[in-house]
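Please predict the structure of the following assembly.
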Amino acid sequence: MININNVSFSYDKGKTEVLKNISLDIPEKKVTSFIGPSGCGKSTLLRCINRMNDLVETSMITTGQIDVMGQNINSKEVDPIELRKHIGMVFQKYNPFPKSIYDNVAYGLRIQGIKNKKTLDQAVERSLRGAALWDEVKDRLKDSALGLSGGQQQRLCIARAIAVQPKIILMDEPCSALDPIATAKVEELITELREEFTIVIVTHSMQQASRISDHTAFFYLGELIEYGQTDTIFQNPSKKRTEDYISGRFG
Amino acid sequence: MKDLKPSKPFSNATSRKFLGITKQDFIKYFFGGNATLAVIIIIAIVWFLIHNASTFFPQYQKKLNLYRISGQEILDFYAKENNAVAELSGLCVQAREYEIQDRLGALYRVIPIYSEFKAKSLKKIIGERKELKRAKTALSKIKIKPSVTNTEIKNAEDYLNNCKNSLKKAISAAVNKLDFSQVKNKSWPTDKKYLQPIRDAIVENVTTGKKPQFISDIEAQEAKKIAEIDALPFIQDLIKSKTAFNKPIPAMNTFVEELRIIADKTKAQGNKYNDVPNTKASLEKAISLAKTTEIKQEKQKELNRLYTIEPDYNTFIKPIYASKESYKIHHSALKEAIKSGFSTLPDTSKFQGKAAKAFIKDINDADPAQTLAELNAKVETWKHDEKYSMGQTVKGFFFGTEWTTNSSWQDFYGILPLLTGSVAVAIVALIIAVPFSVGGAIYVNRLASKAEQTFIKPFIEFIQAIPSIVLAFFGYVVLGALIQEYSQSWMFSWIPGFPVEDQYTILNAGLLLALMAVPTIFTLCEDALNNVPKAYNEASLALGATKLQTILKVILPSCASGVIAAILLGFGRIIGETMVVLLVLGGKISIPDSWTASAHSMTGILAQEIGEVNEGSLHWGALFMVALLLFSIALGINYVSQRILNNYSK
């Protein structure tokens, strides 16, 4: 699904590299988690996949290429707007718009020009059900999204992302601002979403990675140290550094 | 003591004190004192405004009562009836004038263009003309010399001829550079066939000093054409209408003028009587302060002479009540004039000129019979001893359409023309400023590169540093003339209110005030945009929205209250501005009927009139009422925008 081939990335026009020669293939309809200590480049790699790094003017991929669904996403003929329509993203800090719950979920569809009320209603219900939020908010769809609890807001953001029916969902530490109960709900949701979407998740919690992901990649100082089946990485890592990190000896 | 220190490690005994105050306390009291002072000053200002304005309504009520009891009011009703009809006669005259102008076309403008061009080319040959003059005086001086040789005379004559020739050359060169595109008023029709004759005529006039034959011909042509036009049946009808409308006017005028003398006398006595308490108080004070007995006696005499009996208004008003009989005759004459005037009024379709048509339409739209009937009803029910109530006085100030001061007849203090002027300018300025400043803020905050940001922002903020008088000068000298000139162009003729007739208009002042409001709105708007969390931007972009969609659908809605507050504060900035409106608004005290008309403003009237009124007078009170209203508006706007901002930041 996502083929990352020998990618190096820099935020300052190639002076210093934040990612160094990363290669990994992310399979379809699986959960892949990126783990590693802070500043190891896992979030940067995630944001390369939907080209959110374009917002930083001086950023660039210095070598290698990223193919999503078989197409090089950094080639000139790719429109990042179109790309992002197919790759949803959920952020570390839940960030619903200061609009109603309904308008939040419908936003992605509306900017694509869909105005039909019925289509929107259906899409909103489907997405909210998909995000396991429907039963909690169905009576107050017109209320402000900012009135929801933190966990609900994050699930609303997931609903907003899946409303446009992307192929891939990128999650950047989606549970780091949530309490354990809300975290459990989101994790449960992720395991359900696996049926439909390819999910890439950045997390600091190794338990979380081991609980929800099929594959795990361990990064350290901009390098990919180890990548493989989650079970293998956690039970039988081939590299010393991975083992140290997983067992909590550093990080 | 030193030894004790270790045992009391947290003691404050070490900090230095001055008069028992520590440094921390001093800072606290200093800033606390400043804040208290600011509050006290604001309260003092409000008190001062209210104190000075409070005398206004009672005084104004008294004046209005005198206006009524002296009979001035009913005479104004008479005069208004007369004016309503006289206006129609004036409109007829203008319609004829403009119809002639339109039918003559380019011919009508030949002489004005000739004069304009002549003045222009004379400026270019100043040197030659001076030289010629010198040559002439030299020649005449030589001629009266006792011993003069023929050669000397000849030389002088030759030189004079030379000068004449070079003058001719220079003026020919100057006029050849002229063409119709240089005419100041671009809306004037021109005809190429007149260009060369105009040039020749200027040369002829300058070299010979005589009136050129061409100009005389044009005058004759014009006179002939005008006579032809006047002979047209519908113009004949128009002239008949004008005469009919005008017929009863002079008689009615004399009738009213004669009565006015009586009313004026009554009013003067009433004023004197009303002033007695004030005069008495000041005389008594003078007596108590007098140094010599002589002065004391003199003042005492003056005090005894004071006119302390109330004027007998009921007797004075009698002739005015008696005049109602003759008024009825005049009134019916006016009604008759309206009827006969309208009966011959030609149809609009017969006129060629747009302006003439508009004047005829104005006549047809006017309903003088209705005006007359209303005024007549007022005259019938009018009673001189019916008092003005306080409510009527207050209404007269807030809804009065007349602001007349220093009048020999009666002063009126109606704030509506000033208020509408101020508000109209502010609205025009906002309409111009808001797109620029909000758009600019969006661009700088969201779309511009770092380099552009560092260039644009200080530039816009610098506008704030321009002194308002400098901007006002610019509007007074440059902008007004520019607007006036370019608005004549046919390209803008579809805009209502165009072409602009005056230099000093709401549009002109609005443009300058817009420039002054831009930095305020821009800066506050940019702050509001800055406060929008970055996460909204990212979330929207990650959903596949374009930058524009993100700005319009997420960023702007989430800082709408900040933008509205910015606009309101811009409005506050504009409505309090004085210098520009004083110089550039035109100073015409009437409710503006178009956004390109002249007007006056509340701030302008304050600046203009406060220097020339006596403290404590009615006019003084009126100005303070205006100031109080202005203050309330500014306070209200600030309060509302603060509320909006607070709600938004919650």
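The mean pLDDT of chain A is 87. The first strand of chain A starts at residue 2 and ends at 10.
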